[in-house]
Amino acid sequence: MTFIDAPMPAKGDTVVVGLSGGVDSTLTALLLKDAGCRVIGVTMSLWDGKLPPGLDPDAIPDSCYGPGEYKDIEDCRTFCEQNDIEYHVVDVKKEYHEEVLEYFKREYRNGRTPNPCIQCNRKIKFGALLKGIEKIGIQYDYFCTGHYAKVVKPEEGLFGTDIKPFMVSSAYDYTKDQTYFLYRIPSETLSKVRFPLAKYKKSEVFEMAKKRNLIAAERKESQDFIPPEYFDVLFADKPSIPGDIIDLDGKKLGTHRGIEHYTVGQRRGLGVAVSYPVYVHSIDPVSNTVVLAKNEDLNAKGLVADNFVWSGNVEPSEPIEAFVKIRLASKPVKARIEKYEAENGEEFTGTPWKISFENEQRAIAPGQSAVLYIDGTICGGGIISKVLRD
Questions:
Q1: 25-50 as b/e: b if 16+ CB within 10 A
Q2: Per residue in 294-333, is it b (16+ CB within 10 Å) or e — as a string?
Q3: How many other β-carbons are positioned within 10 Å of the β-carbon of residue 168?
Q4: How many other C-beta atoms lie within 10 A of the C-beta of residue 364?
Q5: 208 CB-contact burial (10 Å; exposed 0-12 / middle 13-18 / buried 19+)
Q6: What CA–CA distances, in Å, run from 49 to 16, 66, 274?
Q7: pLDDT confidence of 234, banded at 50, 70, 90?
Q8: How many Å apart are CA 258 and CA 290, to the nearest integer?
Q9: Deepest of 33, 178, 236, 334, by most Cβ within 10 A of its Cβ?
């Protein structure tokens, strides 16, 4: 398929820019201002102000959720004042707690590996934040962020239809590509979303920022979601339930401290002593067991994903071939995608889809996302529900 880049904001357009205090978002705001746009900066307020007992807030790494938010907001406010940019802080704490933190805990306690950044982008950054902007009376032509991605439209209708939806496509700097995190954003929302850094490499962004003497260019990049110091605090609302660690034959190897502390593919911190390297093969929330295996036993031929979204809500009527990513760090691999017929009392959210890989994939984790790409552009994706090994 061939795609056309969606037009970028032009002189005279009112553009809201999501500011985090980092180099990407601040440079985005200045590039749009230089283009003659009326720029309005907004920052999400996520953190509830609660500190883990005994932890020094200055010692906690900067992240999306934590005490560093206060400094980020002040940095953003100062940046906007210095560059004559209107600035607002939008409180989305309640929505973030319900849609991201509770989701994160629920998935781990069900033996799955969630991706909070995907949930946050769909429900908060491109959801609750935009609603908050509208509530304070801001009218805008575009909403822009510093993501490394771009918005496109197909030249021909998608999957044999006449529908040409707005879609997310890979940025020029593939090493910083963030499209995997954005696949659940509806095409209707994308119609007013743009990513001005799509045509730049990260190194070019830093170079431009330094030439403009941006303080953000000297900052360390924050880590995603929450620092590890918060993990036990998040799960402190309920006691962990220990259970057996077993091998593929059912032999007990040890005792785990609660399935929420483990994820498929994990090797470190397992607390067992065996004569060969072992990894988390699978997690069974029903029996409350963690299954370990050798590295080669983690390979699988395919998966079943549900809770699917399709660009423009255009669902293929026949099996398709696409490239699929099963986690952010994985390379897209060729696969066949077709509807899956549920059996043996299986339950799914929405229509389940079977994804069969051309080559086996390692450590497929239920709860993560399988994202489908055609010619570098996302056409759909869903949440991994089942691993197919045979």
A1: bbbbbbbbbebebbbbbbbbbbbeee
A2: eeebbebbbbbbbbbbbbbebbbeeebebbbbbbbebebb
A3: 28
A4: 28
A5: middle
A6: 26, 8, 43
A7: confident
A8: 9
A9: 178
Return the structure tokens found at 215: 């303080």
* Res 284: pLDDT: 97
**Chain-centre distance for alpha carbon 137:** 29
| Residue 241 CB neighbours (<10 A) | 12
Contact 18, 44 (CB under 8 A): yes
Mean pLDDT, range 196-223, rounded to an integer: 87
Handedness of CA 144, 227, 105, 179 (dihedral sign): positive
Chain segment 252-288, per-residue pLDDT in tens: 999 999 999 999 999 999 999 999 999 999 999 999 9
Q: Nearest 5°: phi and psi at 337?
A: -120, 125
Q: Please provide the size of the chain in residues.
A: 390
Determine contact, residues 67/60, Cβ cutoff 8 Å.
yes
**From residue 338, how far is each of 17, 161, 320 by CA, in Å?**
38, 18, 7
* Closest among 74, 48, 53, 72 to 61, alpha carbons compared: 72
Of 41, 44, 11, residue with least CA distance to 29: 41
Instruction: Take residue 45 and report the two structure tokens written for it.
Output: 């307020």
Both tokens assigned to 183: 């696949």
CA distance linking residue 290 with residue 376, whole number of Å: 36
pLDDT per residue as tens digits for the range 361-383? 999 999 999 999 999 999 999 99
pLDDT at 57: 63
Place of tokens 């609750």: 128
Beta-carbon contacts of 237 under 8 Å, excluding residues fewer than 6 positions away, are: 105
Distance CA 43, CA 320 (A): 40
Residues 185, 371: Cα–Cα separation, whole Å? 12
